Amino acid sequence: MAEEVNSIIDNLCAKFGTTLQNLIPEMAKANIAEDIVVIIICTIVSIVMYKIFKKGWKCCKEEDYDKEEYVFMTICAIIVGVIFVILLSFSVVNLTGWIASPTAKTIQAIISMID
């Protein structure tokens, strides 16, 4: 098992182009940046889905519009919006973990690579 851990750590050091001493800060930077990008994308998609939902809901109430099209649009906006809000929540929790304890998250990431 120790050889596996050493192999993973060596591969990570090669990937980040760093030494073992700088591995934790480099992994923390990379994962924090990744989480921030995911949070921004999820926020934008969630806002767009909310606006589509509002428009679809409004149009479903009016009798002038083709109801089937707007009902489908509203249901799709709800489903996609909920998925992205859940993803947003997980990303915020992960970002918090990387900021609070980069060492623990790095160890957790290495252990998850072993399994």
Describe the structure in your own words.
- With 115 residues, the protein is an all-alpha fold.
- It has a domain at 24-103.
- Helices cover 88% and strands 0% of the residues.
- It contains 4 helices and no strands.
- It has helices spanning 2-16, 23-61, 67-100, 102-114.
- The longest helix is centred in the middle third of the chain and has 39 residues, at 23-61.
- It starts with a helix and ends with a helix.
How would you briefly describe this protein structure?
By secondary structure, the chain is mainly alpha-helical. It contains four helices and no strands.
Keywords:
single chain; mainly alpha; 115 residues; 4 helices
Secondary-structure map:
Elements (H helix, E strand, L loop, with lengths): L1 H15 L6 H39 L5 H34 L1 H13 L1
Q: Between the first and last Cα atoms, what is the distance in angstroms? A: 11 Å
Strand runs, count: 0
Residues in helices, as a percent range: over 70%
Q: Total number of helical segments?
A: 4
Low-confidence residue ranges: none
Please provide the ordered H/E string of secondary-structure elements.
HHHH
Mean pLDDT: 86
Overall geometry comes to: elongated
**Structure classification:** mainly alpha
Overall radius of gyration: 21 Å
Residues in β-strands, percent: under 5%
Outline the biggest β-sheet: none
